[in-house]
Fold this protein.
Amino acid sequence: MRKPTKESELSTEPIGQNLIKLISNVCFSVFVLSVLIFTAIAITYQPPDPWLESAPSLTKLFTQTENATFKTDDSIIKTGEDLLSVPAPAVPPALSATPSDLAATPPAMVAATPPALAATPPALAATPPALSTTPPAVSALPPVVSASPPVLAAAPPVSVAMVPVLAAAPPSSVTMAPALAPNPVAETMIEMSKENISNSSFKSVCEELKAVNCSDPRFLLAVKKFNLKTFKSIVFLEYQTPVKGTKPDECDVFWRFRNKKEKSWRKYRDFRRFQFGIGENCTYKVMHTGRWHSGINARPPRIRPNTTRSGGGNWKPKLAPPVRDDETNDTVPTLGSETNFRKGKYLYYARGGDYCKGMNQYLWSFLCGLGEAMYLNRTFVMDLSLCLSATYSSSNRDEGGKDLRFYFDFEHLKETASIVGESEFLRDWKKWDKEHKRKVPVKKIKTHKVTPMQLKKDKSTIIWRQFDVPELENYWYRVCEGQAAKYIHRPWHAIWKSKRLMNIVTEISGRMDWDFDALHVVRGAKAQNKQLWPHLDSDSSPDAILTKVKEMVQPWRNLYIATNEPFYNYFDNLRSHYKVHLLDDYKELWSDKSEWYNETTMLNNGNPVEFDGYMRVAVDTEVLYRSKIQVETFYNLSRDCKDGINTC
């Protein structure tokens, strides 16, 4: 084979080198050009989701004035108990103490965090939902992920991050040992009780059973078995000793229970009248049971107002010493002594622009402040006064001076987070500064741009965030924007609906014997907006509703209708096929003779409280959740999308 000459090598070598250099230059040029294009897009691109935009864009979302637009359904209100992802203790910490213990313990000491409630998925705590300035929408709450149970949405299956437990809570806080939680009454417990009774001195003589002895354990055993077979949607927690009814063969029984769809530890009460006969083997047999709250002899004493007039022209109803729901303890936490006040660390938010901006924004901002207090390991100073937006008030005007305890479960809040009442806090602060030469160390923060991370190591007794700046810059939620959103987790689990409102929900459900279906009808402004919901008005007409409900609900079932339709007779077509129930059918539950009225009047210093629009929606929502079949407006009744055209 002929060897190449040196001339041929020299002639081919430069061509190969040049080709390699050319390819390298082209590739490098393409890479540089790609980086420049990507950088330009990243700088100029504005995503459509406002929560991914800059702070000014988010502020614009809260403050812009809109007509009916793409808004979350405003006839449903979800709170923390609807979003719990872990089992809650059967009894709250405060309930593990006797009334005398609670009387001797300062309210501020009831601040321990129940273990099951301290866990919050990061997705719920960090992902902000869409908000609007229109108060009915519950968009201030985290997006609900479909999960079991069918209606109450649970948290997504992500890793659970623990919310910091406040060290500011006193070490002697009232806590609940798991062993103290009552076990639900089940078939196994009944069988054990039956064996114990059979081994006791009771004689099963039919002649003796003809005269009903309400204190006979065999009688209560028959009631337990009957209830388990009849009321399958509730869990029975405890019974009290039965008492005599009005007839020789009747007894009244009181028990505490919880609905199986209830995710909280709260307990509710019922008392019914039972008529008895003799069954097989000379045992008691339930022949008839009364309706909800029919066993009046077993009922606890009620709060009754004293309507006597006092001297002078001014007259206000005075309430007798209350016998309150022993599951409700919403006394305001105090600091106790001066020493306790001085040893504590506090985060104090002055009133900002969120006041009277709607319940959505209030919750979003309030939980921002509470989340910062948890992050800083400080006690949050709370103003219990809130402003109800005009949308929910009968006067169509913003109404200030509303008590937070009218709407939310304050007992659960103070057990979940370390909080103190603003008025008590300011009183103790002024008293200390007046009586001591050395004033309380205070750090005043005048702008939301000072981040919680910058305050983490601050040693001041009080961090006072002041919002004395113009609108848009004085919203509490601005503190949790930007980088702070990675550190501040809003404690959604701390906000539950008021126990007093939930008692109304329980009574409505109990009157239907927990066996009912529900229809959710959204009309109002959405039905009038033909551009976004062109078919909603016709799809939610009485005839259209009847046609669709017939396909989904069996005739003559109890049918509860949760709706924002103001015309009571709008659903009369359904009454010839179903036992229709509307919220207005239960007005006596919040009338001036009701337990709710008496308790809220006491909270309001003797002034009556209106059952406003926000309360109505909250009750409607919870009754809807407890139904067996739910017929929704969107995806069931109407062809339109829930958030407007082309959003399905």
About this structure: The two ends are 77 Å apart (CA to CA).
